[in-house]
Amino acid sequence: MPLIEAHELSRVYDLDSGRVTALDRVSLAIETGDLVAVMGPSGSGKSTFMNLIGCLDRPTGGHYRLDGVAVETLSSDGLAELRNRKLGFVFQQFNLLPRVDACANVELPMVYAGIDGRTRKARALAALNRVGLADRAHHRPMQLSGGQQQRVAIARALVNQPRLLLADEPTGALDSRTALEILGLFQDLNREGVTVVIVTHDAEVARHAHRVIRFRDGHLLSDERQEAADART
Ligand code: ADP
Ligand code: ADP
């Protein structure tokens, strides 16, 4: 059973100025263990697609199953619960809370999941250790480099042991050397079994995926497998 199964997935916005078809009958499956790059020009539907597969938005047409669950049958609370349990999100601008330290940032998804403080702290520290930041647990975001902040964000995304990591331009705010380190981390996590989907404008980033999906005007333009470049070499 694929982790993600989209069938004729559509998202239409009804605006005063008319209808905008942001995503037009997209069908695809993503298997557990894949590392996928999503590409396409601005306005082609990448964010819309990510918001749908990330259960942040609902389709106006078609069907979507995440890990076998028919998402359209869930209430808003059910969606939020599914999101917190199965998905991790990573963003271009890291989206960390500036006033608390790395450890507290990583604990946040566990606060939502109702996990007790002692367990949260232990798991947050283990996640920071996993991304190579054990010695930065008590630094605030401002006291960390961009690459380190993105590592904290990745630790936060991992802490509930998600099936799927969704990253929206995760290297867009980083220099190319730091970007490669972050891609190396995604590749390591992928080898450990985490399914990863990365939206990127950058062909250099996409070279590190096993599969490249391209959108244009809300349509799936192409879907190709490739030999992924190794970020560690
Ligand atoms: P991308 O992420 O590839 O830049 P988007 O998915 O953001 O593309 O947008 C696809 C299309 O849907 C664009 O034409 C965009 O203007 C439109 N769109 C996206 N979000 C909204 C919204 N909330 N309301 C109206 N139109 C939207
Ligand atoms: P943008 O691409 O517009 O700069 P982001 O990359 O920050 O925005 O976010 C991408 C999408 O994820 C947006 O549609 C936003 O609503 C959603 N989002 C932003 N922050 C969070 C969050 N903390 N948890 C879940 N979804 C979020």
UniProtKB/TrEMBL annotation:
SUPFAM superfamilies: P-loop containing nucleoside triphosphate hydrolases. Residues 4-233 form the ABC transporter domain. Keywords: ATP-binding, Cell inner membrane, Cell membrane, Membrane, Nucleotide-binding, Translocase, Transport. It comes from the Bacteria. One of its GO terms (cellular component) is membrane protein complex. InterPro entries: AAA+_ATPase (IPR003593), ABC_transporter-like_ATP-bd (IPR003439), ABC_transporter-like_CS (IPR017871), ABC_transpr_LolD-like (IPR015854), MacB-like_ATP-bd (IPR017911), P-loop_NTPase (IPR027417). GO terms for molecular function: ATP binding; ATP hydrolysis activity; transmembrane transporter activity. PANTHER family: ABC TRANSPORTER ABCH.1, IMPORT ATP-BINDING PROTEIN. Belongs to the ABC transporter superfamily. Macrolide exporter (TC 3.A.1.122) family. This is Putative ABC transport system ATP-binding protein.
